[in-house]
Amino acid sequence: MANFISLPFYDLLAENSHVATMREKLPPVLAGVHRSVLEIGAGSGLITVSLAEWTSAELFALEPSAGMRGMLLSRLSEQPELLERVTVLPYDALSLDLDEPVEAMVMINVMYALEPDYRKRVWPVLAKHLEPGGLLVFTWRDGGLPAPRPLKELDSRRVGRHTYTVSSEIFESDEESFRGRYVYRITQGDKVISEEELVGHGYRPTWETIQGELVGAGFVQADAPEGLLAWRLA
Ligand SMILES: C[S@@+](CC[C@H](N)C(=O)[O-])C[C@H]1O[C@@H](n2cnc3c(N)ncnc32)[C@H](O)[C@@H]1O
Question: Whose CA, among 46, 96, 190, 212, lies 20 to 30 Å from 81?
Fold first, then answer.
């Protein structure tokens, strides 16, 4: 599994990036979902708490990373009502095990981490745990992968006297995957307080690939705004 995430940086930088967009785009796609939602790769719970605002459904938040789950549970603990309504599943998507199928599944910014062979095996597992006609929504972008490039700063935030900066370098990329490194640095002026480097692969399947895999697993495409794909179990 690719992991380009540095836990202490996650919430600091995520609110600046995809979370605000998803909070705009997801609610209309999920309108009409009332019984149950599974969130795959819930991370620190930034989307989970929004799901709980948009729907009164029972929520299942699946997250394999213990560090991420720690942040998620800490976020849920701030709202006792959520501790009643959200079940946290401490394993990866292929290990999914639910008492009964859910009405909808949401997977935000997770696919980049799934190796192609793993991803192909995941769709039938999700299909098995979705109600007939149930909805699967996930982030997806067409247009290929970033071309190789040197280290570039992506974002930074001030925290007291320190600056938290993330940079990335792309070593090589082909049609559906890339190899790169992410560098997470905490600095005070010119002084580096800490630095963490994560090297690995990321994946972005083409439209033909994703369509073939989902149709093969019994899904039919539904409408979704740009940046998201929605599929229903036939
Ligand atoms: C970029 S984070 C996104 C977290 C959250 N969805 C959000 O939008 O804030 C990707 C998450 O996917 C999780 N993940 C990676 N591989 C996974 C797998 N095989 N099954 C389920 N989750 C996975 C990671 O642990 C991480 O928390």
Answer: 96
